[in-house]
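It is worth pausing here to work through a concrete case rather than discussing structure prediction in the abstract. The textbook approach is simple: state the sequence, then state the predicted structure, then interpret. We follow exactly that order.
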Amino acid sequence: LDYEGDPSTMGKNLGDDLAEGKPTLPLIHALRHAKTEDAAIIKQAITAKDSSELDSIVRIIKECGSLDYAREKANRYREKADTALTLLNESQHKSELLGLSERAVARAA
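Step two, the predicted structure:
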């Protein structure tokens, strides 16, 4: 959510996590796969809690496939959560939990 999307529908501005120095999964993935100079841009932004290079960072994480990687991970964990919920009897609570995992992944799509 921090690197693409519409701030008015997300309820947050692009780059907020970066401005807070939060090393999110797409950033971690990009750090591992980016060219040295691109990784340095990301490291500096996280360390300085600075989102002024957001456009460059978005380009880097897209080039590295980091957003797709994060979506894949989110879907995998949603599937695990949904599988674990199959142990519960049908109830409103179970339905709510299933809906929560679905909305969490759909929000990031």
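Step three, interpretation. The mean pLDDT is 89. Residues 91 and 97 are 10 Å apart (CA to CA).
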